[in-house]
Design goal:
The protein is an alpha/beta fold. The chain is 31% helix and 19% strand.
Length: 218
């Protein structure tokens, strides 16, 4: 039987459901101005995976002005909003990767990242799509190799199915990470970060609890 390798593939839409036309040539020109090309030995990095509409990247860039935030997102509509907010806020420490996070990780020939954020990754709730989920123990171990000492991974989800999947992934690589907020009674995002993304608000409106996992590299 043919064994599909899901690890380096992209799934889901690159455009929203809006019928508004986008000049892709102009879009790529704008992205190129902020495009992540390679690591600079003199810089310290934060990796923001699946940034959606870019709220997390803007937040991180303001919180850590001395770090370079790599905003990794294939969603064109979201990147357009992010580019507008970069210019609106005069931010100069965000670099965009309009594609698969594995492209970035493959260029990491040493421990580059001080922090990794993965907020509201696609849960792919159907069983037949489970292999498409980004957060697995193998992926966490791959991230571990690129993290500096005592660096952290912050993962947020509002999906009960993905929550269990993440818990299992953390357990399977417990020798690599310390789960910092494991003993907390409440894992709510707002207990840790003063940020509200579009997907966070959608979860609140749908009365879904958003949970946050904080892992520190061992």
């Amino acid at each position: 039987m043919f064994n599909r390798n899901y690890s380096n593939r992209l799934f889901g839409r690159t455009r929203g459901r809006s019928k508004k036309k986008i000049n892709l040539e102009n879009y790529h020109k704008k992205v190129d101005k902020f495009k992540f090309k390679n690591f600079n030995e003199k810089s310290e990095y934060i990796l923001d995976i699946g940034t959606g509409y870019g709220e997390t990247s803007i937040f991180l860039a303001k919180q850590f002005p001395d770090k370079v935030v790599i905003s990794c997102e294939k969603y064109i509509d979201g990147n357009i909003i992010l580019l507008k907010n970069i210019q609106k806020n005069n931010i100069n420490n965000i670099q965009l990767h309009n594609g698969n996070v594995y492209d970035v990780l493959e260029r990491a020939n040493k421990k580059h990242f001080n922090l990794v954020w993965i907020f509201f990754p696609d849960p792919w709730p159907k069983n037949r799509h489970a292999k498409r989920r980004l957060i697995t123990s193998d992926f966490l171990i791959k991230l571990h190799k690129t993290l500096k000492k005592n660096s952290e991974i912050h993962i947020a989800t509002d999906s009960k199915i993905y929550l269990r999947f993440i818990l299992n992934s953390i357990y399977n690589c417990k020798e690599y990470f310390l789960w910092l907020n494991q003993s907390e009674m409440n894992l709510h995002i707002k207990d840790y970060h003063d940020i509200e993304t579009k997907y966070y608000k959608k979860a609140i409106n749908s009365q879904r609890k958003s949970s946050l996992f904080i892992l520190r590299k061992l």
